[in-house]
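User: Could you go from structure to sequence for me? I need the amino acid at each position, not a summary. Structure tokens:
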């Protein structure tokens, strides 16, 4: 556990040496996992009218010297083959899971496993949001980690974070890091300039 945190710290330190660098974040997961809600919450936008993403959303946030480009790609089965068109130059992969949709856990696990096999995503740090923790039927993050065999991932830094995109609980991650070395996503919480 501690090793993973230090791994993320080292990734951030590298980026901090060149603060003008653009950080490309890929936001993936099955349809209805809560990707767009999460993205809108992080960008402090209204979440009352969200429809399924047919193509992709991109948000750019300028904050604390970083330009973060977040690509939110639709998760419907017919769109998933197009995910690979967006893999190039990804700095962080965020995978969102609907923790309450137990019927689709096998499907989401298969999609994640395929992503981790992709050559263009090799070594890319992985952050999994175990979303919808506010629902009674939600599987816990540790239950999901076990079910998805995350402990077998050896080729990258990874972390699973329980959260609720609706309430934003759990969206701030690794809060015990030093203030000047926050995880990419914490930068969204106080965006200085938002470009859509």
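Assistant: Here is the amino acid at each position, in order:
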């Amino acid at each position: 556990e501690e090793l993973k945190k230090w791994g993320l710290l080292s990734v951030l330190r590298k980026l901090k040496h060149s603060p003008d660098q653009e950080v490309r974040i890929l936001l993936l997961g099955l349809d209805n996992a809560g990707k767009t809600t999460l993205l809108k919450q992080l960008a402090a936008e209204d979440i009352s009218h969200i429809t399924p993403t047919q193509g992709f959303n991109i948000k750019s946030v300028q904050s604390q010297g970083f330009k973060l480009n977040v690509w939110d790609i639709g998760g419907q089965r017919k769109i998933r083959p197009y995910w690979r068109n967006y893999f190039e130059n990804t700095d962080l992969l965020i995978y969102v899971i609907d923790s309450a949709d137990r019927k689709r856990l096998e499907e989401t696990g298969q999609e994640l496993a395929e992503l981790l096999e992709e050559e263009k995503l090799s070594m890319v740090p992985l952050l999994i949001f175990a979303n919808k923790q506010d629902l009674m039927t939600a599987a816990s993050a540790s239950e999901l980690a076990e079910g998805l065999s995350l402990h077998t991932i050896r080729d990258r830094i990874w972390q699973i974070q329980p959260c609720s995109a609706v309430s934003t609980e759990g969206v701030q991650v690794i809060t015990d890091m030093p203030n000047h070395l926050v995880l990419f996503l914490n930068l969204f919480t106080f965006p200085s300039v938002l470009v859509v």
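One structural detail worth keeping in mind: Residues 98 and 104 are 8 Å apart (CA to CA).
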